[in-house]
Specification:
This protein is of the alpha+beta class. It has a single domain, classed as 2-Layer Sandwich (Alpha-Beta Plaits). It has 3 helices and 4 strands. The longest helix has 20 residues. It is elongated. The chain starts with a strand and ends with a helix. 18% of the residues are buried.
């Protein structure tokens, strides 16, 4: 059986050059934090201040893994780092929070 996780990778924008800043601002309405969703592809959210951002993922991990939460957290961090690099977005201070959806229902 697989665990379903909602994972948030949070971080801060690094030093943004003019074109990167302009591109992020042009798309800011599409990345509104209040409209964020957990998706398998990932959802980038930030506001117009361009200080901090988050990437939200829905990820699955099998029971056979010794520590599914740690495995999914590491995978999300790798995905986020790769996506930010490909997009040319400098960043700092990445941190990950993973919640097993089943645990949320048990509380």
């Amino acid at each position: 059986m697989a665990h379903i996780y909602r994972v948030i990778v949070r971080g801060f924008f690094g030093e943004l050059d003019g074109p990167t800043r302009a591109g992020l601002l042009a798309e800011a309405d599409e990345h509104e934090p209040l409209a964020a969703a957990f998706t398998t592809a990932g959802t980038l959210t930030y506001d117009r201040r361009l200080v901090a951002f988050s990437l939200r993922y829905e990820m699955r991990e099998a029971d056979e893994v010794d520590d599914p939460a740690a495995a999914v957290s590491a995978a999300a961090l790798t995905r986020a780092t790769d996506e930010l690099r490909r997009a040319g977005i400098p960043h700092t201070g990445l941190r990950v929070q993973a919640i097993d959806v089943a645990d949320a229902w048990r509380r």
